[in-house]
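Assemble and predict.
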Amino acid sequence: MFKRYLNTWSILPIFCFIFFITPVLIVISSLFGEYSDNWSHLYNYVLGTYITNSIYLVTGVLILVALIGVSTAWLVTNYDFFLKNILEWALILPLAVPPYILAYTFTGLFDTYGTANNLVRDLFNLGREFTFFPKARNVPGAIIVFSFTLYPYVYLVSRMAFINQSKSILETGRTLGLNKFGVFYKLAVPMIRPAIIAGLMLVAMETLSDFGAVDHFAISTFTTGIFRTWYGMYDIHTAKQLASLLLIIAIMFITAERYSRKNADYSFAGSVFRQVYLLKLTGLKSFLAFVICFIPIFIGFILPILELSYWAFNYKLDFFNDKFISTAWNSFYLAIITAFLCTLLAIIINFSVRYKNNNILKFLSSFLTVGYAVPGIILAIGVMQLLTFIDSGFIEINIQFVLTGSLVGLIIAYIIKSYALASSTIESGYQRVNKRLDDVARSLKTSGWPLLTSIHLPLLKTSFLTSVLLVVSEVIKELPATLILRPFNFDTLAVYTYIFAAEERMYDAAAPSIAIVMIGLLPIIILTRMIRTSRPASRDK
Amino acid sequence: MTTLEIKNLNHHYIKGKPVLNNLDLSLDEGEILSILGPSGCGKSTLLRIIAGLEKEKSGSIQINNSIVSDYFHTLPTEQRNIGLVVQERALFPHMSVIKNVMFGLKFHRQKKQEIAMGLLKLFKVDKYAHNFPNEISSGEQQRVAIARAMAPRPKILLMDEPFGTLDHSLTHQLRFETKKILKDNKITAIIVSHDFDDAISMSDRVIVIENGSIKQQGTAKDITNIVREKSIDFSSISEKS
């Protein structure tokens, strides 16, 4: 029994489990320590603001994201209208734009002397004091920024759920007196509610853990508070206590997301499945459907790209200078190293689960994916403390700070944060590899490592590449953990963008921002290819 | 000489609902045995336990007079020297036909190629040696799967519904050819099937399993007579499956 659960293939998952959970435990442990005067100050004067701002932000974002994500998914899944085939995949493009970059372009566009207000003044020959667009640096502005960059999470899950929805149930609704809109909000949406909630929980976690956008808009939330406490008050212990509160909220969202995902299939049980055929819309209806789907793409992708390109080219800045190239190179090699390590870990751990098929390994593998929900800032604090602790062991032999402040910490934090992406990609790749191949290979005297290298790896090539690209784009975008853990004088594209934006040098921030978006587009292109092939209804038509 | 000896084999997935119940079975060298029974009777589980892909709850299994599994130890699949053919064929999709057959051989490359080509000729699929599995028909894929399982000269060849997905005329032809090859090469084999014709036409002996125990056993002729005498409708077994 002991051998069944503890063997060579258990070593890596157990090691990763310890390494993944330790930084989180370090942060949580601060709750049981002493509370300093800084904590009393935070508690009495600003904690309430952090909480109310976070609640306003998350509530607003969730409402807007649900409206955009579900309505666009319903339209592209059930109707045929003007440019529908393009809009269907273009709706996920805003995923390539991190919220902080949209925030930077929003301030550039909508500040008093921003591009949009200047354009209105020039067009209508108005005075310099006239402002048409309101300022974006406030909670409603942040709600719009987060909603238009994060709605694809809900769009993707809703679209998939609508595609798999039984046509028969919807038609039964019509025979029972519901009109088209009634079918949508009384049947179709309630039936996919668990999928929508799972998507919304991801959005809530992303919103809460963001640092770049809220910092740029000067909105006090948990993440900006943690930064201020650490770098302003130089009090890491109180920063950890604040981070623990954020972590508790994140855990609540993770639990809700997991629970919803578990129930995501309930609506299809017992129903006779029949594919949905697309209803052709013409005239004004077709145009309206087009506008509803185009607006999110325009605000979340086209507008920032246009603004960034305008800054980068019209101001004729020498943006391809040595600094930009060295920064891009830093981002690139860091992302590639992380992506390969993360994907290799995901392959070996998923192989262990499949090969040994025991519950402990299944639990460990599933637990490791929780890292994606831990805000980067919390991970960074935990990893830094862990590395400082390990480094303290070297002091005896007169070597100090071997790991702290090195790239090791940064790579560890990235791996913990991105492991879920790699693991889910490899896991879905493995679902397509028939388990009978393993049985046959074992009967032909091939097991363990040779089974992995000669049979599984060649069959997982596409999943491997997809996973690498997804992790690369995630790492390139990551900001808060990078800001804290990067070695001295080591910049990445995200940090470079942040520094320029913090100094309001938006034109200088344009080139690295474009680079981040372009790299982020690579996995999106793969995703859009998958989306095109995931529509049996339209193919059968 | 006895090639396979199974004693008091018990297995269950849910306590109180046995899948295999005190099953005893032996198989002589070169003998072809068919296991018949409805879906869920435990016949595929028995095959997986013999292959070492699942561990029995109790009992013992000997192959060539050495214990491969009992209470104290279990030899992993890769050390049991068995061949496995499954209904889905499970050819490695990223390897050519000849590479599939060479996969289980542990010789130098030229010798491996010779053996593999010889087997492909035997199964009349040598002209597809360098094609990939998706480029040949399902009947040809099944021939390759059997050739691959036979290549390392296993002590026992285990075949789980080997012709289950093929059409009637192809099944008939493959049954005949496979039996001839198995007999010519004196290969001990167990064929699990829910198809009465498969069992009767392929094997020397047939056992019928129901609820995890052997209900009938005898030569193919004996079983045919029992079926006639008792007017058992074996199509119902197929339908259940």
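Chain A touches chain B through 16 residues (CB under 8 Å).
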